[in-house]
Design goal:
The structure holds two protein chains of two kinds. Chain A contains no helices and eight strands. Chain A has strands at residues 2-5, 10-15, 22-23, 28-34, 37-42, 47-52, 59-60, 65-69. By secondary structure, chain B is α/β, with parallel strands linked by helices. In chain B, the strands form two sheets. In chain B, strands 1, 2, 3, 4, 5, 6, 7 and 8 form an eight-stranded mixed β-sheet that branches. In chain B, strands 9, 10, 11, 12, 13, 14, 15 and 16 form an eight-stranded mixed β-sheet that branches. In chain B, helix 4 (95-111) runs parallel beside helix 6 (139-149). The longest helix of chain B has 18 residues, at 444-461. The termini of chain B are far apart. The chains are: A mainly beta, B alpha/beta. Chain A binds chain B through residues 7-9, 34-40, 61-62, and chain B through 272-274, 320-326, 328, 356-357, 359-361, 363, 425, 427-428.
Chain lengths: 70, 510
């Protein structure tokens, strides 16, 4: 199980994947908004989304788990 | 050959074969090379002149006392080298090991040539401590010399194995540390000692491995795949540097950029949308000339050497694709060290700014982002090499300052048509100034209209043509012309002479 974490503190702007989706390395999974910038959070390696832990509008801190991948 | 020469040949070959066979086998098992094979790969034609080969030769098991010190050539230029031999008592330091290292440092200072440290050492021989640790020409003198040499001649560390305890300061005082993945490590106390003294259970790789240091601590600069790769990187790094601070790096023939994409296609107009700054760099600099420093550490700021029409430059570029290109504690540190390195060896600086500012919030304030940011600004501000500030897109707040904004005496501040310079972006600014008025409007539609109107006013106020009209930027250039503009300006600024103000040295905001 692999955890995809927030690279910085911000608000969840968009969630681009759902549970069970197959993802590739480098694919944008979640878009955060921070410092008025769009911050793409990418997959690290190939896998299947096990769980999406956040909703649009949530505040997340740096290091919070956004998505788990198996 | 008479008997004396035969004896010499046999004694020399004994020394040159290093430690016992089992230790050579250990090297092979961990994908490591014998010290003399490393030197053959490093030096042009594998040739070098060695001093102190017979150090401690009466002790039999300590050939060369565990370190090879030599002069040779790399890319045709003279360099000095010290290289640990980990087949000899795990590359540990005795009295003569330390004396040899000090002497090669003195040689490098006298000849004004770069010094490479090929490190693979378990640290001090505790049994020899009185002879090598506390005295005037003990291990401390190695670090004292490193500090003395810093900025005089390039100092490069190729880390093949451990650099333990005090020895870990050799890489720390070098200009650059190239670490071999899986094998190189740096630590003050070994995992065994950590367990005994503080009760922590941890692996060497977790605590002081190459990947950790290159991505998290920032003690490593470049992660090499294996020893051959590390040596190749070391040779390549030196090609960007003069032999010492009196000289300039020679210019080579220019090459076309590797990426043929237009900069206007790479940079989105929407200030808040991410893009990949590496593409812009590839479209700007000579093909295959980019040598990145600290790629894995604080990737929101890109630092590296490149050539533009054959001239060496140092690039400092925000990466909007990572953390929005916002500056953090680590990115500030990374930029500060890189700028100092370029300035010490007359390498012109090019800033590619697309920065929303320094990060805000509790976490970074308690980490001291203000004093870390001050390091970056101080390094940039005191650099006297040609400084070219290119405002690619936004440059907000102290981000503008850190990226060599107009107040910091860049030789020029040039803007692309997408540039936007302001204390903060339109959304944040309108909210800061008109928050009370916005909240007082009850009708939601009217409120949205009001905010829209204020955004428009603000955008007009910070319009790049207005800033050019006020002489804040020196020129606005299309992306398609940026490379040519930089080529011309770098050639004009070559004769720059700038005296630092009369004083001993600034009080660094560290």
């Amino acid at each position: 199980m692999q955890e995809i974490k927030a690279s910085m503190a911000g608000t969840v702007l968009n969630v681009m994947v759902g549970e069970g989706d197959t993802i590739t390395a480098g694919q944008e999974l979640v878009m955060l908004e921070s410092m008025k910038m769009e911050i793409p959070i990418e997959g690290v390696e190939e896998g299947t989304v096990a769980e999406v832990k956040v909703n649009v509008g949530d505040f997340v801190n740096e290091g919070d788990v956004l998505v788990t991948v198996k | 050959m008479n008997h004396l020469e035969e004896l010499l040949a046999s004694r020399a070959s004994e020394v040159e074969s290093g430690g016992a066979e089992k230790y050579h086998q250990k090297l092979k098992d961990s994908n490591k090379l014998f010290v003399r094979d490393r030197l053959k790969l490093l030096f042009d034609d594998g040739e070098y002149t060695e001093d102190g080969k017979f150090a401690n030769n009466l002790a039999k098991e300590l050939p060369a006392d565990g370190v090879v010190t030599a002069i040779g050539r790399v890319n045709g230029e003279k360099v000095c080298v010290m290289a640990n031999d980990s087949t000899v008592k795990a590359g540990s330091w005795g009295a003569r090991t330390v004396e040899k290292i000090i002497r090669i440092q003195e040689t490098a200072m006298n000849l004004k040539v770069p010094l490479l440290y090929l490190v693979d050492s378990a640290g001090a021989r505790i049994t020899d401590q009185l002879e090598m640790f506390p005295n005037r020409r003990g291990a401390g003198r190695i670090f004292h010399n490193q500090v003395k040499m810093s900025g005089m001649v390039p100092q490069v560390c190729l880390l093949f194995g451990p650099s333990a305890a005090g020895g870990a300061y050799i890489p720390a005082f070098c200009d650059i540390v190239i670490m071999v993945d899986k094998n190189a490590s740096m630590y003050l106390g070994s995992p065994r000692m950590a367990e005994k003294v503080i009760g922590e259970k941890v692996t060497l790789e977790q605590m002081g491995g190459a990947r950790m240091h290159c991505s998290t601590s920032g003690c490593g600069d470049v992660l090499a795949e294996n020893e051959e790769h590390a040596i190749e990187l070391g040779r390549s790094y030196l090609s960007y540097f003069p032999g010492n601070f009196h000289k300039q790096t020679p210019r080579l023939d220019g090459k076309l950029p590797s990426l043929e994409k237009s900069i206007s296609e790479i940079v989105p107009e929407n200030q808040n949308a991410p893009f990949n700054m590496y593409e812009l760099i590839d479209a700007l600099v000579d093909g295959e000339s980019f040598f990145e420093i600290k790629k894995l550490f604080a990737p929101e700021l890109i630092t590296g050497f490149a050539r533009i029409d054959g001239r060496v430059v140092g690039l400092i570029a925000n990466q909007p694709k990572v953390k929005g290109g916002v500056l953090f504690v680590d990115s500030a540190d990374k930029g500060a060290k890189f700028i100092q390195l370029c300035d010490a060896y007359h390498i012109p600086l090019i800033f590619l700014a697309d920065v929303p500012g320094f990060m805000i919030g509790t976490k970074v304030e308690s980490a001291g982002i203000i004093r870390h940011g001050a390091k970056l600004i101080a390094a940039m501000s005191s650099a006297t090499v040609p400084k070219i500030s290119v405002v690619v897109r936004k440059a907000y707040g102290a981000g503008l300052y850190a990226m060599a904004g107009p107040a910091f005496e860049p030789d020029c501040c040039i803007a692309l048509p997408t540039a936007q310079i302001a204390v903060m972006g339109p959304e944040a600014a309108v909210n800061a100034v008109y928050a009370n008025k916005i909240n007082a409007i009850e009708d939601p539609k009217e409120r949205i209209e009001y905010v829209k109107e204020k955004h428009q006013e603000y955008k007009e106020h910070i319009d790049i043509y207005k800033l050019a009209s006020e002489l804040i930027v020196d020129d606005i250039v299309p992306g398609s012309e940026l490379r040519n503009v930089l080529i011309d300006r770098l050639s004009y600024y070559e004769s720059k002479e700038m005296e630092a103000p009369a004083k001993k040295h600034p009080v660094y905001p560290v």
